[in-house]
Amino acid sequence: IAGGCTKTEEEEGRGIEEDTQSFHGVGVCKWFNVRMGFGFLSMNSREGEPLEAPVDVFVHQSKLHMEGFRSLKEGEEVEFSFKKSSKGLESVRVTGPGGAHCIGSEKRPKGKSAQKRRSKGDRCYNCGGLDHHAKECKLPPQPKKCHFCQSVSHMVANCPVKAQQSSPGSQETPLKGEEEVQNYSPPPTE
């Protein structure tokens, strides 16, 4: 191919061999992120031969042999088949000792708490209740109020509480438009 980079037959053969040939390893889970669904195994033995130093092998939750939520516990003993890839060593199938199911971590991804799930945007705009929205509200229409501090004396755009929290001192500093009005002097009349 003109101008392009081509692989020799020998290089292509090696690439295919790397992608298809798998090896057997034994080790422990080095770490596993239950939220992201991946981690690393620390391989102590390869093809039945002990290694001088542990070698890291990538593991994705989809490769774990177990029921339900798939994860690994740090330090959990595992057996696995793995392959070499362009990114390094990647597990193909991970089991517990003797091909048993993996034990897994007791940790679960942190779901949104009830408070986060029903944030301020998920409340009734009429009364502020968390158990329904305005169209299901049993109260008559309530007076309009500030969405930030719930005061009926002003709207959120003019909320002193919000202004104070967002930038302390912003109350003392007039806005540019206000300065211009305050400093405005009409042109002299002749």
TrEMBL record:
Annotated CCHC-type domain residues: 123-138
Domain of life: Eukaryota
Ranges of compositional bias, category Polar residues: 163-173
Basic residues composition bias: residue spans: 109-120
Keywords tagged on the record: Cytoplasm, Endoplasmic reticulum, Metal-binding, Nucleus, Repeat, RNA-binding, RNA-mediated gene silencing, Zinc, Zinc-finger
GO biological process: pre-miRNA processing
Keyword hit for Chloroplast: no
Spans annotated as Disordered: 93-121, 160-190
Domain CSD residue range list: 24-96
SUPFAM superfamilies: Nucleic acid-binding proteins, Retrovirus zinc finger-like domains
Compartments where found: Cytoplasm, P-body; Cytoplasm, Stress granule; Nucleus, Nucleolus; Rough endoplasmic reticulum
GO cellular component terms listed in the entry, alphabetical order: cytoplasmic stress granule; nucleolus; P-body; rough endoplasmic reticulum
Pfam families: CSD, Lin-28A-like_zf-CCHC_2, zf-CCHC
Keyword Cytoplasm: yes
Record-level Gene Ontology MF annotations: mRNA binding; zinc ion binding
Family: Belongs to the lin-28 family.
Protein name in the entry: Protein lin-28 homolog A
